[in-house]
């Protein structure tokens, strides 16, 4: 059995670094589509030369063919049109000038790289993309590979994601027989695996 920690939407790597520091027996995978943040993540993980870490400059998504990526403040971004960021950042996302980023079919990546016997913990902070990604994981069964799931939910920040859709997804996650726990997570707090 492998122990796996996957950081979806790694941003500047704070949560990833804490996981590496406290979970040395895990393998670590980080996904961050904002290329400007990859050097910061790399600097953080260089402090742990024995850690098994792979960093992907890709958006977690439902397909592998890339997508538009919207950036505002250096640490805020989204692949979801209509996303609003908190006023503390002072700058909204620039929808007029999208960047094209590589994406990964996350559920297929899970199915291709792991076994049901693995212990998998996911932190997911992907600015609204959690809805299509998790819905696909439920549909194709990859959700059953996950033991713990920490999600920062963005339904109230995204146009087109209703509270009803959010509640339906939460209920569907409750039905997952393998998923032992799923938690609402806030980027201002650290995860506890």
UniProtKB/TrEMBL annotation:
Highest rank taxon of the organism: Bacteria
Methyltransferase FkbM domain mapped to chain residues: 7-159
Molecular function GO labels: methyltransferase activity
GO biological process: methylation
One protein family per Pfam: Methyltransf_21
Keyword Metal-binding attributed: no
Stored InterPro entries: FkbM_mtfrase, SAM-dependent_MTases_sf
Keyword annotations: Methyltransferase, Transferase
SUPFAM superfamilies, alphabetized: S-adenosyl-L-methionine-dependent methyltransferases
NCBIfam families: fkbM_fam
PANTHER family, per database record: METHYLTRANSFERASE, METHYLTRANSFERASE TYPE 11 DOMAIN-CONTAINING PROTEIN
Name of the protein described by the UniProt record: Methyltransferase, FkbM family
